[in-house]
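Below: protein 1.
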Amino acid sequence: MNSLQRKPLLPEDKSPAFAFVLTLLFSLIVIIRPQEIFTPLNGIPFIAVLSILILVIILLAHRPIQIVPQHIALLIICPHVVISGILNGWPGEGVAEAQVYLVSCVIPLFIFSTVYSSKSRQIVFMWFSLFAAMVMVHNGYTQQQSPSGYGWTGTSHVEAAHRITYLGILKDPNDLGLFFMMNIPFSIYFIKHAKFLGKLISLSLLGGLLYGIYMTNSRGAMLALAGMTALYLLITYGGTKAIILGLTLSPPAIFVASIFRTVSSQEASAMGRLWAWWDGLEMLKANPIFGVGSNNFIDYHGKVAHNTYIQVAAEIGLVGYLLWMTLLLLTLYMGFSVISKIKNIDKEKLTETMKIEGALCTTCFYSLCGFSMSAFFLTRNFFIIFYMVAGMAIASYFRFIKENNGQSLFEYKTVIKNVVFIALSVLIFIYIILKFTV
């Protein structure tokens, strides 16, 4: 009888290499933007074609296809955005914004969380991302050295401070600084785990990333880098040691901070951001469930919120905000649970593969922490690179628990409750700040 049973069309565990190669091509198009550098490639919809092609390959040839709460949360945002647009009198814009969420957020997250099923694939992507960052650092350097202010990509620096820029999604100095900052954990991973030559290359790449952040003159990237460093010290060394190291590093950190533009709350630009946050909370208060509509914040305030959490809550309400925060916080919790597991597990039970997978998951965790900190000062809910790294972080977590005999490191129901609590606490915290500053 068993011999007559129908065999599965595909093996239980299969991930086509071709899909991975296409994700690298997708990353090349999204990040480095050769289609904007070379004129004959202008106008060709590479991103849309590659997205569809990778999705088709996943559906036809990838097994297993795992749907996680982050996928569901982001997908639900799409119809929610449509309803929000309808209720605010802009149904067409609601549909258009839902498409933006689908293309920039849902699809990249799903693709990267599915295809990056091995540690070697993540390592290749991290090297690629570092290489891409150096391309941008070099372009920024040529911008600052050129009398006209233009780099070899045809982009120019901005403002009197000569803040460097790049193409496409990284044309804003703050976005460019954010990308450099998210790459720093990648370089540190290779400094710690690569062979001698890899360590030397990674050390030079780390210097290039820091120089790139300096050239962007991005306060958000600088503050996020400081926060990411403080979090690393706290998690790695604990309270007392972290405080001692923090005090030791404070003088050089203050010196570096003094080089950047002023970050005082009394600065006109900073006060403008605080008022934008206040207006965002007022929009949320007036439209608590569906918000004022995606991409409509600027219609009510005149500028973006310069705070991703406020912008998301104001535009798509508490429901959309909690769904988006589920993606961010649940993915961060996955990374933190791996860090905790490695710290507490019996060393004899910690295999070499678990060490490597744990280090890769930890790398993604700190990269996403940097994004979440910078999101406090920038509006970046459509920053596609975040969803690519988040997808890779999800894949990394599931690779780790596979080595942990398939045992999950936490209960989803408990964590989701904590996610809701933390997400609401963020808004309350911002409200308290504003009550004492504006």
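Below: protein 2.
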Amino acid sequence: MSFSIYPAFFIFATIMVITPGPANLVLMSSGARFGFYKSIPFVIGVTFGKLFLTLGLGLGFLTLVYSNEFLLNGIKILGTAYIFWLSWKILFLKLDKNSSSDQDHVPSLTNGLLVHPLNPKAWAMIIAAYTQFTSFGSSNLEISWLTEVAIVASTFFAIQAVSHSLWCLGGGLIFNFLVKTNISRQIVVTFLSVLTIGTVIYSNFII
């Protein structure tokens, strides 16, 4: 990746990361349900899950995935099922802010780590980043491949850390605004959950 290409990659990564998708919407749902601070471990998990996926693809898994349609379809099915389950888990919990049983079911760091590896949108944007903005498949390297992987991974990580926090914070603001009106908050969380499910179906099986 040359210095002249990096601005275009940065714009691409920013647009892909900040736009609505299964990960951002489920983060917003968690913020709306539990508040931002209780969702921080989940935010950290989602962010690092994307980092591990980016590094894993860049350090060897990309070649296998890029040419294996069966594997990509399997990821779509597993990812859709997981996002469905996570949305269901967030949706059908008690809305009492002080409920101890509710606190036990806040999405965890481990839940977050699985979101992007099971999110086909994440796979698509990472594969596009490597194939369109790096020397993947070329024998003419301006810089080492490891350096390119580090640039792609660190850029995504920085943008994800900000974007995911803001999406969850947006949900947290909803939580604070509607804290005394559980019915209204249920309506908002239901809308976000349905929107998440619709987004993952559309991105996985329609486009």
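Residues 21-206 form one domain.
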